[in-house]
């Protein structure tokens, strides 16, 4: 059975709103402020994560983000790896996923994700998708959370764990500096 991994970029206060500055909020663009060295080190961690995964699971907005950011045609080993992976998009409104190789999952989230976990043996990675992340935690479907902490405090706006209904216990698996300003934390969820 595959392990469902939540892979998230978050600010120190858990802020996730508008990381690259597309929605025009006053919290925008924090992800794009990392140094080139930090970005390169982060990209290596993400590429390694993709190599260890069998599939991606995304929410509708994250599918739209990846397609809009050019991942359907972007070059490089990481982009190629992500393109070749099966991608599943949870959506009740989309007819067709925007990112190449995607499949829309329309049914009840818990049932659909349980089927995915039974289908794959290695990791199923969820990128971004804050709303979906909260649903997966609330339904006790997430097995691990991997957080890349960015050295910013957003204060307001959307936060990763806003509105969680379920309580979850986490066990620290590893802590790794990424570049000079980022930290990668891995927790198992019990």
Please report the distance between the alpha carbons of the first and last residues: 16 Å
> Got a strand count?
8
Tell me the β content.
25-35%
Low-confidence runs:
none
Kindly provide the radius of gyration, computed on alpha-carbon positions and rounded to a whole number of angstroms: 16 Å
Instruction: Write out the strand line-up for the largest beta sheet, numbering strands in chain order.
Output: 4-3-2-5-1-6-8-7
The helix/strand series, from N terminus to C terminus, equals: EHEHHEEHEHEEE
Overall outline: globular
Structural class: alpha/beta
Number of separate helices: 5
In which range does the helix fraction lie? 25-40%
- Biggest sheet overview: 8 strands, mixed
For the residues shown, what is the average pLDDT?
93
Using brief descriptors, characterize the structure shown.
190 residues, 8 strands, single chain, globular, alpha/beta
Describe the structure.
The protein is of the alpha/beta class. 28% of the residues lie in helices and 27% in strands. It has five helices and eight strands; from the N terminus they run βαβααββαβαβββ. It has an eight-stranded mixed sheet with strand order 4-3-2-5-1-6-8-7, with helices on both faces. Strand 7 and strand 8 form a beta hairpin. Helix 1 runs parallel beside helix 3. It is globular. 32% of the residues are buried. The mean pLDDT is 93.
